């Protein structure tokens, strides 16, 4: 689904009244090569794309058509839904609709999101009604309570010669049963509310994606807030873990504790009532330091965070809460990895994540997080997308890359380096992939594990994936030794099995979406 970059360059150049020769001279290439680019016969990316964008006074996003890419992906996902798959709409329909009727395309995508959320809610309620033993017990209590109240009420109504003591006893019984019914009803409502909240998680995740995408994952006000926190820490001498912990306790009244907490189910947490930020003994120093700065960011940036989540993309308190948590981490990243310095180091080290980890005493994941935020206009880093997976293959964290369909939930393509990294734990895996539409990307993945606290502790790894368009790959150390112009060695992949059009893939785990075909329940491969 690659955007026609050459056509966009040609159109913009003509609108500005520039000749091919003039633009070619300004970007230091030959007119014949520019002619091939504008005819979409040559790929353009990296520093050359940046020079062309600067000469045309247009953002790289506009040249690559990233917003259109994302909308096309959403429509393809919509058309692949079993509810409408037999209509026969597909990729060409999506492209045509986005090109000719973008407003209608956006409405369709928005309606599909609402449909998915409503379906998830209905499924959650149905599952609880069918299978939840707690719900069954609550309903039984409601019926028993109603029966008891009705029996007492009938006795009071039908028996005229009840003594005062008996009448008081039955009235008391009705009072007790109704109070019990009230408590049970509140519990029952809570169970349904919980089901509804869980079912909305995918929709909320997409709203957060919309916010990140609209801002290009760059928030100037929060970058400034991070710089202020960094300056405050430097002035107080809080340049190491012990100093930051001292600042947290003396200024914010939060004590840092390290202990086992074997039954907590979490690696760290903030106990606001006790004024304690606690960590399990196995949490590494890089995580402890980041979480301390994150808490400082949260405690001192209420107004900045409140203002940042006042965007139309976030339609519910749950979405705003999730966004607020993400943005608090964003501020901490800006404080620990100052934008200009970090970008300069990233460029000098050619985006070597492990080298940056050593320089900043940070984890692989923390560095990867910061790399996806280097999108300040005029000072952009390589545009990266980000995914994290657990050992079961389930995606647990997601930051979108415009132009690439990254799954929101579930599992990605089994051929992605994200999963190959689990077979080489601790070793970095790189991969040049090609999607069925011809778009090519560089994948860089690594599986990392926390330390085990003891023999019985299961220290499960998780895999981190950074992905960038092949057009930018030459700016990274991970392109060394690769012939980026030779696509024959690319790994053919898809986004997910359901949305992949490669019918000859032996790694397929689910039947593909094919317009006009009936859904099949047969096993794809043995």
From TrEMBL:
The record's CDD domains line, in alphabetical order, gives: HTH_XRE
Keyword list (alphabetical) reads: DNA-binding, Transcription, Transcription regulation
Q: InterPro entries given for it?
A: Cro/C1-type_HTH (IPR001387), HTH_RamB (IPR026281), IrrE_HExxH (IPR010359), Lambda_DNA-bd_dom_sf (IPR010982), ScfR_C (IPR018653), TransReg_Diox_bact_type (IPR050807)
The reply on keyword S-adenosyl-L-methionine is no
PROSITE patterns reported in the protein's UniProt record:
HTH_CROC1
The similarity annotation says: Belongs to the short-chain fatty acyl-CoA assimilation regulator (ScfR) family.
User: What's the name of the protein?
Assistant: Short-chain fatty acyl-CoA regulator family protein
